[in-house]
Amino acid sequence: MPPSPSAPDLTVREVMRPAVTTVERTAHVAAAAYLMKRSHDNALVVLADSSSRVPVTLVCDGDVTQAVADGRDLEQIRLVDLDLPVMVGLSPDTPVPEAAERMLQAAVAYAPVVEDGALVGLVDLAALTRGLLIGRRQDRLADARP
């Protein structure tokens, strides 16, 4: 049985989850909030349009909360009207430490995973942290072996 990969060897592919729930950038914020609740997701990938799987940004529960706090009408305002973060797109083959570093530098908690220009998954800092800890634990066990 081959050894488990260590933290530097883990890739985003191994810690990401499928990005099942997406939303178009012209959708109302209320629709995004409904989709988040229904899918039990804290973030949705925003697509360029309904026919593509090309992500343009993300919307997370904090963006919806900010819109509410600003007194905006969620039934009237659209996602394109929000100040959403610059997207940090990752490849499935991006090493976990590099992905975590890029996301931390951009101050984002979620990143879409894109392969051949199409959305294939979503990764968050919690999943990357778990990957780093698993790799670290495996490295320590390997160092302890005689």
UniProtKB/TrEMBL annotation:
The keyword Ligase does not apply. Residues 16-74, 83-140 form the CBS domain. Pfam families: CBS (PF00571). This is CBS domain-containing protein. PANTHER family: CBS DOMAIN-CONTAINING PROTEIN (PTHR43080:SF2), CBS DOMAIN-CONTAINING PROTEIN CBSX3, MITOCHONDRIAL (PTHR43080). The keyword Ligase does not apply. Keywords: CBS domain. It comes from Blastococcus aggregatus. InterPro entries: CBS_dom, CBS_dom_sf, Diverse_CBS-Domain.
